[in-house]
Amino acid sequence: MGDDTGNMSIYRYGKEVLAYIMGMARNDLCWCGSGKKYKKCHKDFDDRISEMKFDVFKGQVRPPKKIINNRADIEGIRRSGVVNDGVLDLMATMVRPGIDTASLDDAAREYIESHGGIPACLDYEGFPKSTCISINNVVCHGIPSKKTILKEGDIVNIDVTTILDGYFSDASRMFVVGGKTTPEAQRLVDVTRECMELGIQAIRPWGWLGDIGAACGRHAHENGYSVVTDLGGHGVGKKFHLEPFVAHIGKPGTGMLLVPGMVLTVEPMINQGTKKVTVDSGDNWTVRTADGKLSAQWEKTVLITETGTEILSS
Ligand SMILES: [Zn+2]
After folding, report:
1. Per-domain residue ranges for the chain?
2. CATH 3.90.230.10 at 65-313, yes or no
């Protein structure tokens, strides 16, 4: 038995080296875990990438295989996203003047748990609550609290991430408390949503990551706003945060190649004044604008498909 194990490991090591030198054999099972033969799954995909030229001066890089989701993975994220969207729909019915943000957070956690999920934010690197609720000059990572009471005219971001059967989905929406705010605040909320939508519309399979940031950033700057660059979007799937980091400024044609099977968030944080932000020294979480002016954010989880995109959570 001991000898067999030793021989097996030598055999397997040899096979791995051979696969590395020769590439995957056409009849091997595909690296994506689909269970299909390589020639019927990602062979054309790999051939297409190997024929491409990557311009290092534009930061063009291949996406790592570990962030390419197979059909089962995508279905898992999609199902997680249905629960996540349900939380945000619930929040939409609850946001009103006078409610405290801990009550919103409790309802979100109960919704996720009653649908078989886990709130990803709870205990994430010590975060104490299930959602991030960020009001007015808070850019993101606001901690829900009994002491934080929503008032008419506040602009509020509620950011929810659900884990269902090991799959993450992540989205956030803005809410105007009481339905009415100043024209300046309303314009920031609206333009930020447009930035997100334009960023998503810029995504093309076999396009580039920089296309997203270019579209988001251009629209923000044209409207006289700044774009937060200390934080950004991310790949999402079997983990909360995966490659790539999604910047909301950028140049078209730069950065990582975007390919079918990638799932990432587009989540621009747009500020009225400076793009500079500070982290609360007391709780080490709450991110605020450095100048105290307003900030807004919208977020969707986006799948890159063969022909375009599919929204998996919004
Ligand atoms: Zn495959």
Report:
1. 2-51, 65-313
2. yes
Q: What are phi and psi of 13, to 5 degrees?
A: -60, -45
CA of 68 to the centre of ligand 1 (A): 9
Query: pLDDT tens across 264-288, in order?
Result: 999 999 999 999 999 999 999 999 9
Does the pTM surpass 0.85? The reply is yes
CA dist., res. 215 & res. 250, Å (int) = 8
Q: What is the pLDDT of residues 123-151, one digit of tens each?
A: 999 999 999 999 999 999 999 999 999 99
Q: How far apart are CA 102 and CA 289, in angstroms?
A: 22
Contacts of 73 (CB under 8 A, 6+ apart): 33, 167, 237, 238
Cα 258 to middle of ligand 1, angstroms: 16
Residue 26 alpha carbon to ligand 1 centre in Å:
11
